[in-house]
Amino acid sequence: MAISRLLVAILVLSFCRGEARSPFREETKTCHPECSRHGNCNGETGQCDCPFGLTGPTCTQRLLPACHPSTNDSTTPFHGAAYPKNCACYRQLRALPGACPDVKFEDPGGRDFLPCLFESMMGPDLLCYQYTDRPEAEQLSDSPPLDHPGLEWREMRSLPNLREEVLPRDKWPKEVKTNDGGVWRPLKDCPDNCNFRGWCQVGGAYQEHRGPDPWCNCHGYYEGKSCEIADPSHCYRNCSGVGQCVRGWCHCQPGYWGHGCTRRKAYASSAGWLPNHADIKVYVYDLPEMVAHRRENNDWWAGVDPIYASEVEFMEQLLGDWSVRTENPWEASLFVVPTFTIWYTRNTGGPYVIFNWVSRYLQQTSPFWNATGGRNHVFFATNDQGACRLQQAPDELQHSIKVVHYGLSPRRPYAHHSNPQAGQHMTGALPLPGHRFQGFPEFTAADVLEEHWMCYRPEKDVVAPNFLSRDWVIPENYDQTFNVSVLPDGRHVISRRPDAPERNITFYFLGNTPSGLMYYSHGVRQALNKLFGPGGKHNANGSQPRLDYWVNSPLHKHPRVDMERSKFCLAPTGYGWGSRITQAMMTGCVPVIVQDHMYQAFWDVIPYEEFSIRIPRANLHRIVELLDLVTPEQLIKLQEGVAKWHNAFHWFEDLGGLAYNYTVTSLKRRALRLWSEDYRHLRHAHRLRS
Ligand SMILES: *[C@@H]1O[C@H](CO)[C@@H](O)[C@H](O)[C@H]1NC(C)=O
Ligand SMILES: *[C@@H]1O[C@H](CO)[C@@H](O)[C@H](O)[C@H]1NC(C)=O
Ligand SMILES: *[C@@H]1O[C@H](CO)[C@@H](O)[C@H](O)[C@H]1NC(C)=O
Ligand SMILES: *[C@@H]1O[C@H](CO)[C@@H](O)[C@H](O)[C@H]1NC(C)=O
Ligand SMILES: *[C@@H]1O[C@H](CO)[C@@H](O)[C@H](O)[C@H]1NC(C)=O
Ligand SMILES: *[C@@H]1O[C@H](CO)[C@@H](O)[C@H](O)[C@H]1NC(C)=O
Ligand SMILES: *[C@@H]1O[C@H](CO)[C@@H](O)[C@H](O)[C@H]1NC(C)=O
């Protein structure tokens, strides 16, 4: 008896010791037994993760019932403005949490912040219909004939408040045009009702549809004559071979969940949050689709311009990189929040609404947000102006780490707050409009203001390069400059070709140069045009002609081909970040960066002095003198630097791309910051860096 008691005591003791060594234990929750039919059981939350549009413990409850085209339970809701929907659909959409947050947000620039998560909510007068003979619960967006009995036509506006008006009968539509110039038709006129995955129209976009036959214009993620083919290319990691890709969402086999079906385990901790300081780990959130998803725009648009796709590319690699990633948030130092930001902002919008909504959601639901006030949470904003003007947003939005392409961090930020607690932080008068730099056209006050948005805080944010499509990177094009050999183990060894074509263009730039809009590229493109354009000093007819400088030259063929023949390539900004530096690096052309107050991609990780030239705007008028001073030996050294570091600027792992790796490195350094005295200072300051 005594012995067995002793034994129990020893067992308990050793068990406790074991637990003291690792405070974490696996603890995977279970869901409703029927969850996995339509959803994924999230073993961490114990909730059934549903595709967008469905909810409940078995994902059979419709979130937006009136946006479905049918009662058939295989359908998904569509809520864009490309063709008329049931008014109840828009009402239900407007009522979703976060759909159009109560925006107390002043934008002195007067543009760009989309106040709703869903684009159809922002149209001024949305045409919609409603069945007068059915209750709300039976309303559908089933594309009936316009003159269907029992239909009533209305107009709706969501902002600033929901307003809905029945149209007088003489204003009811006789015909509805589609955006592409076609005519919208009832769904039943099309083959197989487009499988409820598209809308029906006559004429419009494509040559092959010029005839009288109705055809299916498929929603994003679907293709085929009757939209019968689901395009699987919009899911992370092709659902890891253990799931099916459904409209950008993975339906995983039981036991798997999360982005790309990459999750299998969940954890609990007896010691609370205890991040590992020796091996910095990253945890990736799997937010419910209702909170953020790879949504389509306006019914039809599932893709984004690939130059904005670095968030997706980063996630694709991180999700499979278990040397950095952890499924255990209790040991994670950094928390990546996939928000699919570019789908919400498009290129010219700002990420304020989606960040605000997701941050607040995490604040309420994740124990890890409040631990640091969100300071170790990572968001991507690859839109043109990235995180500009976030200083006007509430405090809890400002602290998190932003990964951007636009690293503008002005010396004297203009930081007018609409947030009374944050106070006014305009730290000095802005430069005067008018003449500012020699050789530049005049700036207006609005142009000057544009340069003084705080877009990037170097101590906590990360600048990564934009995504460049494969044709810039593939060996066949690359071969012009670089010798690519593939080793037996599949690795690529890339070196500069000794026989690369002669680079007899000294300086190259081709690009949009809107005259009079000096906020575009902060006047750099305009000043260069002045110098080399008609009447300019270095124009062919000027006092010091330079035919070896191609500035918007009529001789250009293709930027890639011309840059492969150039020694120096201008890397300016545009409306926001510019892609010329990544292009220059891919073509072996030494980038000449003219971007005042702008942090460059991986500035904290790679040595820019080895591969680039930097010129301030104040000296741009002397660019020819400055580049003439570069000796052939110095140029060769710079070109070798480009060859050595160019892989940092592209994302193709199979072609040696390191953009993912350096983003991780840069993020890890932000974790070190988090644990430094500096950072604590910031935390207590509760206000902007000045
Ligand atoms: C639902 O729609 C699918 C696809 O069009 C079809 O195969 C199926 O038979 C429909 N189910 C019902 C109950 O109508
Ligand atoms: C994606 O996965 C599916 C099955 O899970 C497979 O049939 C398909 O070939 C995969 N596609 C690619 C591009 O790997
Ligand atoms: C985090 O803090 C906020 C504000 O104090 C609070 O409302 C919220 O409930 C907290 N979140 C959690 C998960 O405890
Ligand atoms: C390319 O590199 C490989 C080895 O790295 C070398 O054998 C080959 O000669 C090089 N080709 C050219 C054209 O420089
Ligand atoms: C520059 O090189 C290209 C071929 O690489 C050649 O066609 C062109 O004539 C050269 N131009 C000058 C000005 O030497
Ligand atoms: C130079 O002047 C000639 C004659 O005035 C004109 O035809 C030509 O277009 C000018 N070239 C440039 C590059 O401005
Ligand atoms: C970059 O990261 C990938 C993981 O996605 C890894 O396989 C590769 O070895 C890393 N490359 C370097 C040079 O660290």
UniProtKB/TrEMBL annotation:
Keyword Signal applies: yes
Protein's name according to its UniProt entry: EGF-like domain-containing protein
Pfam families per the UniProt record, alphabetical: Exostosin_GT47
Intrachain disulfide bonds: C31-C41, C50-C59
Main subcellular location: Golgi
Family: Belongs to the glycosyltransferase 47 family.
Alphabetic keyword roster: Disulfide bond, EGF-like domain, Golgi apparatus, Signal
Location(s) in or outside the cell: Golgi apparatus membrane
Annotated ranges, domain EGF-like: 27-60
Membrane topology listed for this record: Single-pass type II membrane protein
Annotated signal peptide: 1-20
